[in-house]
Amino acid sequence: MLDLYRWHLRVRRMNNPGAIAVTFFFLFAPPTFLPAGDQVHTLTGHGSPVMALACTRDSRYILSAGRGQVIQWNVRNGSRVFTLVHPRWALSIAVAPDGSEFATGSDDGLIRIWRLDNGGLLRTLEGHKGLVVALAFSDDGTTLASAGFDSVVGIWDVAGAKAVRFLRGHAGEVNGVLFSSTGDTVFTCSADGTTRLWNTHDGVLLKVFRGHSDSVRGVAYSRRGNMLATCSNDSTVRLWDVQNGECLRILRGHSDAVSAVAFSPDGRFLVSAGSDRTVRVWRVDTGETERVLRGHGDWIRPLLITRDGNHIVTGASDATVMVWRRPW
Q1: DSSP summary character for residue 33
Q2: Over 90: is that where the pLDDT of 79 sits?
Q3: What is the pTM of this model?
Q4: Phi and psi (nearest 5°) for 216?
Q5: Cys bridge to 260: 151, 173, 177, 303, which one at CB 3.0-4.6 A?
């Protein structure tokens, strides 16, 4: 079986791997070797890549999104709470701060607002002209930000189910969106290699962070030190001073594209994950690698840290969600 998996890896490097290689990947996954105590749960239920993750504010539940479904999981015991049948692909997901609703973005360009308790569809937001790949609620839950492959960032009135404004300026698809702590500004990152800071009230572009040499895939913000983290297809993670826009540190260690980043709640650690199938934990003050977690069999896409800081959660193209015990 392991030999078949190695054969699969060789085939995937060819220009045209073909359907047979994909079939072998799903049938013959490699064995997983993990240091004791790292991994808490491996959650299976998706039949395709896990595209997005979200966590409730009380850290009791996580939601994972993929092709045709959204699954809610109990973090403590790894049990499945419910499965929502979703039209087409659910590419992005965000939970409202009060835990009553969650939003999904899809490849049909629509944003859907659902009840968290029973999965009932509440509202549908229209405005994007392409895949909606990132969503974020403001801290008060009244505003939703969205981003997608149409290079546009949407700012939405959640209760009124209407667009407040659309932010334009990125020269490529927008891969990530994130509110600042005040909700007055929003960070976005794009395939154009930049990360931008916008005023949500008037749409004014306040700052542009430049430095990555390839598409910027993810963005995270820490109130501690007013610091921003970005990750890119250039295999690096960068830390930025939000006040002056300067790059504070470049973190190197990943061997391929980095898909997602997240700060620990106290801001002392940063977690990143990507195409090299590793989860790296960094010390923010020194930029040194604290820990490397391994277990996924393919490209890791979304990543989050539960709000209580006790768990790291990752989703991957191997169709699994992994819950890890915090290593700090």
Answers
A1: -
A2: yes
A3: 0.88
A4: -90, 120
A5: 303
